[in-house]
């Protein structure tokens, strides 16, 4: 047998061994992930709570109330190890009811709380500029917040802060939020005017958008409803964006398409419809 033939056979043997090793490693890794993904080890948890309820009111008016089956702060895993400074907040079965009357009453004092500025509220405290003394006396009375202004993505900051405060955990590195089973409702009196729900949800680390994933459903009562795999609540605009196939139902009309963007009342819709 020539030397070239021996090298060729040796190369094939080495390739087969490497293929078997890689396949075996991948199979073991996949099995490990499936076996360990659903639950975290207790030692990974920095704080946790079960059966947590939240409630916020303004006087005798309820602003929001909710329930969380479980909530925990855990170390972020890198492979099988939980190391590093990053933390992940995991929530199970979250239901939060917001009440329009309470949101309106809660927003009103915030608009009048500053006697020295007529500037619009800003989200980032670093962008606040000193008031112009020449404009203070000429400031027009603030208009009461509208229904659209009262329910925005920022509305969720109150409940999330209440949940985290309930854990007595003050870590600044909790940048990942994962939710399993979520339903958000908005009520006007006894009538539910909005609901969004999904199997899972997460907060994008970069944009802080909220992404609802898996059987995502947005219901705006008589204004219609949308069903899709993924619905994103965009922080910058407080609009809902869909880039997956969706089914939109308004009155007796049903449309299918993708790349839809709308407000939570389904009054202003931008989309591309198939056919």
Question: Could you characterize what this model shows?
Answer:
By secondary structure, the protein is of the alpha+beta class. Among the domains are: 119 residues, no CATH class; 61 residues. Helix content is 24%, strand content 44%. Strands 1, 2, 3, 4, 5, 6, 7, 8, 9, 10 and 11 form an 11-stranded mixed sheet that branches. Strand 9 and strand 10 form a beta hairpin. It is elongated and about 95 Å long.
Largest sheet: 11 strands, mixed
Radius of gyration: 25 Å
- Give the overall pLDDT as a whole number: 75
Helix vs. strand class: alpha+beta
Distance between the termini: 67 Å
Q: Report the principal-axis shape.
A: elongated
**SSE run:** HEEEHHHHEEEEEEEE
**What is the chains' assembly state?**
single chain
- In total, the number of strands is 11
How much helical structure, as a percent, in the residues?
A: 10-25%
Residue stretches low in confidence (pLDDT < 50, at least 5 long) are: 33-40, 110-131, 133-144
